[in-house]
Amino acid sequence: TTPVRLSDYRAPDYAIDTVSLDFSLAPTATQVTAQLAMRPNTPGAPLVLDGDEVKLIAISINEEYIPSSAYEATPQQLTIKAPPREPFTLEIVTEINPKANTKLMGLYLSNGNYCTQCEAEGFRRITYFLDRPDVLAVYTTRIEASKAAAPVLLSNGNRIDGGDIPGTTRHFAVWHDPFPKPSYLFAAVAGDLGLVEDSFTTMSGREVALHIYCEHGKEARCAYAMDALKRSMRWDETAFGREYDLDIFMIVAVSDFNMGAMENKGLNVFNDKYVLADPDIATDADYAGIETVIAHEYFHNWTGDRITCRDWFQLCLKEGLTVFRDQEFSSDERSRGVKRIADVRTLLARQFPEDAGPLAHPVRPEVYSEINNFYTATVYDKGAEVIRMLKAILGEDGFRAGMDLYFERHDGQAVTIEDFLASFADATGKDLSQFKLWYSQAGTPEVTAEGRYDARRQTYSLSLKQSIPPTPGQQTKSPMHIPVRFGLVGPNGADLAFTSATGGGVEDDVIHLTEAAQTIVFEGVSAPPVPSLLRGFSAPVKIATGLSQTDQLFLLRTDADAFNRWRASQQIAIQTLIAETAAVRSGAQSKLDPAFVDALAEVAEDDSLEPAFRAQILQLPGEADIAREIGHDVDPAAIAGARKRLMAMVASRIGKRLAELAERTGNVGDYSPDAASAGRRALANAALALTVGQAAPEAIGRVVARFESADNMTDRLAALSILASNGFEERIAALETFQDRYRDDPLGLDKWLMLEAVVPLETTLDRVKALTTHPAFSLTNPNRIRALIGGFAGSNQTQFNRPDGAGYDFFADFVLDLDKRNPQTAARLLVSFRSWKALEAGRRALAEKALRRIAASDSLSSDTRDIVTRTLA
Ligand code: HT7
Ligand code: ZN
């Protein structure tokens, strides 16, 4: 496939004002009649419509069939050579096969129900179309199907007609969406589904019907999603002044879905894992995930649907902004400080490695071969960080004024990052030209800080430097605008005042680092401070503060910024574990220092702190975190060995105290998913996880007892996960019990598959291979694949990276096989190799061999071809 470049963007030659679609649904031969009101922007230009695996049945212009010499049709394209120069109606009839659609793009069947996925380029798998986001049309959709097989018929907008088709067993419904939209937001659903109904009164007093559709029998599990939806709708009114605009808002939960969910106008389609919850099946993390995804898709109604992207290079315009909005929502609904830590954990785990490896790309990419591969952590999560920095730079009011202007100016349009930033620049009078580099320069900026206190002058000077490492296609970079939120922590733990800050760049508690190097001199500083920098993780950068372990322990105990307390604990742990990894590799004795472990217990037992925060402190860096920080010549076995040593020391030194803490906080009473109860469970389970490092029978026994007595999925899974991730013998019986309990529940079985895959033992590879033929597994369901194969490659560092390369070989075979059915899911899995270049030489060679074997296949999809090529480059 030829790469698409941002610099080649051209406005479309034709506009489509209205689209009238008529679906006659049948599993293997669905007919789609599309009537398009076409208007030439470039009269006389050939009309080139996109297609993908569609069969043309008939074509007419202004109700007259056109001769076959007037057009050329392939399954990928329909070209009308000389269309009318005036507006005209184009009617196209196509035939598609939903049952054979294993790519889950376009119209497909999930558990016998019809559903669609059109972002990014799925609509062209339904009919020939100008399938690009800058072609906005008003859609009317008629769906006709067997009444018995599909009593529910849904599409975007409001339902305007429906009924039985006399003399047949079929019925129909007609939906009209008055808001112009691009084809990627089209959706249709038909099937036999259960319904949960509610309603919402908007801020202007309009009543909106809320419908959630799911498999029959699962209705009770939709209550939390419905509640999250209503809270999201209210929050968008209060926080952004955005009201819902149709008479009905619908969510459909399906079990076969390539991603999390999709924001189709008025008809969101969800992976059922982000809708269905009850205490027996969902963990606290699942509840939080549901809240996030429900909010995210709902917020797209304004940031994505009402204002959309001009082209796919602008994807972060809707995704980064909408992630920022959902993060803010969850922060308001839960604990802001803890939510920030959780979001930064995700950023560090997903985006930092992407930015540091061969798949690095700017938040707004400038070239792509396969757009499906750009739904990345960089576009989503770093994209959200960019918005957060924009807010830090403009202030609360400036940010809101910019957002208001953006909505006012661009409602109903398909726009660019330039349009977005212009709204903020115009609303606030600020020059955002340097800030814009965040959208074009890939790579994680590296900041160093060095401070010096002058007791005689009572000054503290802080020298900051920034640099950005080279990334594919970008060797040199310019300095960025990095907002560094800070405090100068005095000896008693409180922030010190200062009388002035010279050297430029300080506004309130933010240093605006805009040069490659900047020195700020603070005057009137009464005592030597410990600088607390990048509070709240005010910018997505790596920072080397050069602080001693003593200073970091001081920040861990005292910093007024909860985020930086957590960050200090992680930094100390990482530094300790890096040193210990080197010791393991060289066969040296343990170098672990107990001071950190004592501080951990102290914070964990501090009842004046939120339990959820203490739980975060107790979650020590995982093997992948350590590998990321080491960055080169990575030996996963040595890392695992070092972590084991630390866990053993933790258990022997503070295990008893943590077991008591777990006992004291673990019994929360009847299960409720609220943030406070979840926080107490998280603390108890995190404490429990740190008691087993010596594999003492008594400690393991406590975990088994917790597994057996748990009355909710959170505690049950936490205990099982401790047994599995430590490879304890006791896991075998517990996994069996768990599997048995959830034998009829695919979402429960996903958790089981995942835990089987993360056991850090040599036998796991064979176990995973065997499970690919287990009846609970399915090669057609992305959730099952992500649980078992994604769990193995993404969360089992030692076994995926086995020194004999067998983990890579199995994985490569799996990806090659999956690629034939579901290229998108195959390509996403393959991203597990993104850090292969950082491995030690032996594993690196084996990983490269596996990647080259994939690349050598001549039947790869464009999705997998793109990932393997860039990963190897
Ligand atoms: N905007 C949605 C992205 C999405 C998607 C993209 C490609 C292929 C399948 C997909 N399903 C959903 C989801 C979101 O970010 O809200
Ligand atoms: Zn989104």
TrEMBL record:
Residue span(s) of domain Peptidase M1 alanyl aminopeptidase C-terminal: 550-873
InterPro entries: Aminopeptidase_N-like_N, Aminopeptidase_N-like_N_sf, PepN_Ig-like_sf, Peptidase_M1, Peptidase_M1_dom, Peptidase_M1_pepN, Peptidase_M1_pepN_C, Peptidase_M1_pepN_C_sf
Gene Ontology BP, a term: proteolysis
Domain Peptidase M1 membrane alanine aminopeptidase: 224-435
Needed cofactors: Zn(2+)
Occurrences of domain Peptidase M1 alanyl aminopeptidase Ig-like fold (ranges): 443-544
Family indicated by similarity: Belongs to the peptidase M1 family.
Function (record text): Aminopeptidase N is involved in the degradation of intracellular peptides generated by protein breakdown during normal growth as well as in response to nutrient starvation.
Name of this protein: Aminopeptidase N
Organism ancestry: Bacteria, Pseudomonadati, Pseudomonadota, Alphaproteobacteria, Hyphomicrobiales
